């Protein structure tokens, strides 16, 4: 039997702004990546999201991003490896405090947005992020883009790592995600996205935007909780994976 973890980026509301469908989507995922206040989220949202994840028995992870609220952490910034270490450690520490207060273990760390994509190809940034996670605890799992420099950096340090694939994103021939600035980077058709996930899990392959098929390793699948059809998609992928005899469970 094949197993897979389903993760979702959550806790991305901020102040008076509500983003996503956290409470409704949690029953269909096994891991939650909770924003830590830099690209989204705030202390009250973090507290509430940890509580919700605990209630649904969903593994809790920190989702650190670049300090860019207005850009939602999706704009590249020129930061050093040391700065990557510092901002990652700071944000993990913030979420860890809520986990400790509520008696919840910190299961994993998954960088967000531009920080994630930069670390996927920049070895120095990847090492800074991995070292921050190792400092918190080597039992914490590093979630990174499948086959990326970030996953490789985690492995070199002795961290447990999870190769992440994306349900609703297209891929380039080098295995990176198609930049959101390019038309067609996001898959809006529910069945197309689910078919892509099943192929990645069962066959270890994905079709690229250039029309090629490349190998890919899938340990965890990211589904997004902030789209207009997020709940419908979460229910559909959960149901269809089970139909294909794929066991959905936390790593």
Describe the structure.
It is a single chain. The protein has helices at 22-25, 43-55, 81-102, 113-121, 123-136, 149-157, 190-203, 230-243; strands at 2-10, 31-35, 59-63, 106-109, 141-145, 161-166, 205-207, 213-215, 220-224, 246-248. It has 251 residues and is α/β, with parallel strands linked by helices. It has a 7-stranded parallel β-barrel with strand order 1-2-3-4-5-6-9, surrounded by 6 helices. Strands 7-8 form a two-stranded antiparallel sheet. Helix 4 (113-121) packs across helix 5 and helix 5 crosses helix 6. The longest helix is centred in the middle third of the chain and has 22 residues, at 81-102. The radius of gyration is 17 Å and the shape is globular. The mean pLDDT is 95.
In short, what is this structure?
39% of the residues lie in helices and 19% in strands.
Largest sheet: 7 strands, parallel, barrel
What sort of overall outline do the alpha carbons produce when their principal axes are compared?
globular
Fraction of residues in H or I helices: 25-40%
Radius of gyration: 17 Å
Q: Give helix and strand order, one letter per element, not per position.
A: EHEHEHEHHEHEHEEEHE
Would you tell me the structural class of the helices and strands?
alpha/beta
Content of β-strand: 15-25%
Count up the helices.
8
**Strand neighbour order, sheet with most strands:** 1-2-3-4-5-6-9
Number-wise, the strands total: 10
Query: Termini, distance in Å?
Result: 15 Å
């Amino acid at each position: 039997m094949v197993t897979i973890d389903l993760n979702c980026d959550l806790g991305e509301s901020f102040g008076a702004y509500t983003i996503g469908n956290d409470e409704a989507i949690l029953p269909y995922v096994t891991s939650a990546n909770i924003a830590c206040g830099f690209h989204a989220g705030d202390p009250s949202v973090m507290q509430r999201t940890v509580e919700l994840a605990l209630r649904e028995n969903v593994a809790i992870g920190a989702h650190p991003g670049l300090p860019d609220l207005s850009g939602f952490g999706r704009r590249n910034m020129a930061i050093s490896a040391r700065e990557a270490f510092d901002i990652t450690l700071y944000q993990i520490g913030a979420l860890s405090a809520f986990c400790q207060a509520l008696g919840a273990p910190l299961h994993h760390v998954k960088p967000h947005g531009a920080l994630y994509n930069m670390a996927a190809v920049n070895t120095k940034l990847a090492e800074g992020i991995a070292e921050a996670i190792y400092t918190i605890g080597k039992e914490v799992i590093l979630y990174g883009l499948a086959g990326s420099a970030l996953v490789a950096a985690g492995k070199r340090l002795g961290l447990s790592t999870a190769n992440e694939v994306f349900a609703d994103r297209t891929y380039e021939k080098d295995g990176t995600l198609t930049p959101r600035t390019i038309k067609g980077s996001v898959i809006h058709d529910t069945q197309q996205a689910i078919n892509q996930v099943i192929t990645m899990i069962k066959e270890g392959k994905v079709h690229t935007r250039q029309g090629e098929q490349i190998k890919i390793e899938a340990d965890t699948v990211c589904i997004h909780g902030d789209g207009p059809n997020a709940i419908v998609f979460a229910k559909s992928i959960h149901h269809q994976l089970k139909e294909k005899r794929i066991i959905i469970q936390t790593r």
